[in-house]
Design brief:
This protein is an alpha/beta fold. The chain has one domain: Rossmann fold (3-Layer(aba) Sandwich). Helices cover 46% and strands 14% of the residues. The relative contact order is 0.15.
Length: 254
């Protein structure tokens, strides 16, 4: 069996109706996993799942909508995925929010609170709901999609960056707690990726030119380029990796 095979595995991916999450769902299905496509709205999830099932056969993808801001929704996501598919081997916490663009001095309390709750606390909830069954089986892989923003300061997405820095530490701490049970917890830190979520950072030609000029690979990334890192971390290839942050940024942070 390939080091990168996910045959026989079940993967739940939040925020997987588009962008990075969609690419991870597609590639994990290609690697042999049964995937749960989840985001707030059912219709976009259905479209992604239909395409995966058309390519890999009925049952390759299942849709369970969930709003990450709702603890009840996240509990339902885990319970329903387990009921329908029997288990969860891989959890990808990809969904995130960033309702504010500007300096920290101008952010409203409710905006700051929403960023921290959706990007950090929601991951904590979802992992807590999922991990008991992984501990029982003595096997599991948890991936949090963070950002290189968690490694740097920014004049416009500071609160988002603070939440992503917290995700690094969430993964490190949980890796210590769950390591004795062979449950691995890691993060992926993408650079600027061409997604709708990051559109404010790449649709401006001046900003895009500045970013590409300071990127060794001289371009921004594509969602599919994050999916490879996710498969590595979820598969046997990454079986001795935990508590780590894999930076996928075209070299920006060097």
């Amino acid at each position: 069996m390939s080091l990168f095979s996910l045959a026989g595995k079940v993967a739940v991916i939040t925020g997987s109706s588009r962008g990075i999450g969609k690419a991870i769902a597609e590639r994990m299905a290609e690697a042999g996993a049964k995937v749960v496509v989840s985001s707030r709205k059912r219709e976009p999830c259905e479209a992604v799942a239909a395409a995966i099932n058309a390519q890999h056969g009925a049952g390759a993808a299942t849709v369970i909508p969930a709003n990450i801001s709702s603890k009840d929704d996240l509990k339902h996501l885990v319970d329903e995925a387990t009921r329908l598919l029997g288990k969860i081997d891989i959890l990808v916490c990809n969904a995130a929010s960033n309702p504010y663009y500007g300096p920290l001095a101008g952010i409203a309390d409710d905006q700051f609170r929403k960023i921290l709750e959706n990007n950090v606390i929601a991951n904590h909830w979802l992992i807590n709901f999922t991990v008991p069954q992984m501990i029982e089986r003595n096997d599991g892989a948890i991936i949090i999609v963070s950002s290189i923003g968690g490694l740097r300061g920014s004049p416009v997405i500071g609160a988002y960056n603070i939440s992503k820095a917290a995700d690094f530490q969430l993964a490190r701490n949980l890796a210590v707690e769950y390591g004795p049970h062979n449950v691995r917890v890691n993060t992926i830190a993408p650079g600027l990726i061409k997604t709708d979520f990051a559109k404010a950072l790449w649709e401006d030609p001046v900003m895009l030119a500045k970013r590409t000029e300071t990127t060794p690979l001289r371009r921004i990334g594509e969602p599919d380029e994050i999916a490879g890192a996710a498969i590595f971390l979820a598969s046997k290839a990454g079986s001795f990796v935990t508590g780590q942050s894999i930076v996928v940024d075209g070299g920006v942070t060097i």
